[in-house]
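REQUEST FORM: STRUCTURE PREDICTION
Request ID: SP-0412
Submitted by: Lab K.M.
Chain count: 1
Length (residues): 435
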Amino acid sequence: MRKIHEAGRDIPVMAETDVLVVGSGPAGIAAAVAAARTGAKTLLAERYGCFGGALSIGQVESYNWYFTPHTYYAYGLSSEIEQRMIEMKGTQPDSRGIGHFFNAEIYKLMLDRWIEEESITPLLHSLAVGTVKEGNEVRGVIFESKSGRAAVMAKCVVDATGDGDVASLAGAGYHIGNKEPYDVLPVTMVFGVGGVDVEMFTRYVEAHKEMTEPETHGLKKVFKMAQQAGKWPYSREGGAWKTLTPSGDFTSLNITREFGVNGVDVWDLTRAEISGRRQAMEAIEAMREFGSEMGLAHCYLRSFAFQIGIRETRRINCEYNVTRRDVMENGRFSDSIGVFTRFIDGEVISRDDSHFELPYRMIVPVGIDNLLVSGRCAGCESDAVQTVRMMVCCTATGQAAGTAAALAAMKGMHPREIGVERIQAELVKNNVRLS
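STATUS: Completed
RESULT:
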């Protein structure tokens, strides 16, 4: 690859804080709120113009679709996020279980208000492009924005970017996929449609209950017929719908699928965005032609997600990497920072209270100080990323990371030096279930 030389320059410091959280999906929101409530001055940075991650910019909507009356999870901020959305009338029941769909626009407003309420300093339109380090210690993060290149200095940093951007920039080891670089989970362009005959669709679903069962849900019949007719040349048969409005809008359809996309390669992302929109239009054509008895004959494009939905990129090498065996065999850890249900997306949904514990070591990167990771870039093996990446699990690791970062910052210690008993006590005080 051809290279050019970039001259060195002085970078202004635009802010200093105790805890800096980068990324504002459920992991980042939880980390920032937890840090602020623990008593640390906190700044939350986000590369887009709104907070919320995939729920806001990806039209995902489904926060806890797999929940049953027995689902066992950490509570804490995971529960508070849902409760705040219910109070703002920003949810709709999910017919697949006892969870809720989130209205993405109300979610954005909820987060704006919550961040202000907690006295967290917000920073939008800021992309992390580098770190400030002294030896192995991360002292700050460099951002690019419309204001130029500037740094935020912090006593402790939480990487909640999903892609492990900050940890990678700081030199942490990581893995992408399994055996090959692009052996990762598929990406999805979520889209919305209008023009659905609500009465007809509702009657059809009531007569075909399998459409709302977690294992068989979705518009499978439509896309099987389209495949047989040679008009849906993709392996995925159907997919999930989320909110259906009284006016006939599906605000979120998870149907498209693209494989072999490296979500931290800009060329791959460019191709995936364009291909995803094309695939979404093919899906709409299939719905019109083969979904007439469901009330889909006159559906039309309503919206595309602002960004392609990424399920898996970097998994940071941490002091412990959660495995499928931990998930399936009720893993227990003395340094537990929360719990999550026995769940592997697309394979396993617990019908009872089976669960495993999340160890503190899974958010502590190997060889890097003053940095914690949370969310889907936390320490896990490739066979467990389908679990660790789930939003409720991300919230649990985020709350723990924010709590630990605040304690470390206020004590002038590295996060790995904080006694886990102190972190656990703070989490329990904030309604987190550890076992």
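NOTES: The CA atoms of residues 74 and 433 lie 5 Å apart.
Reviewed by: T.R.
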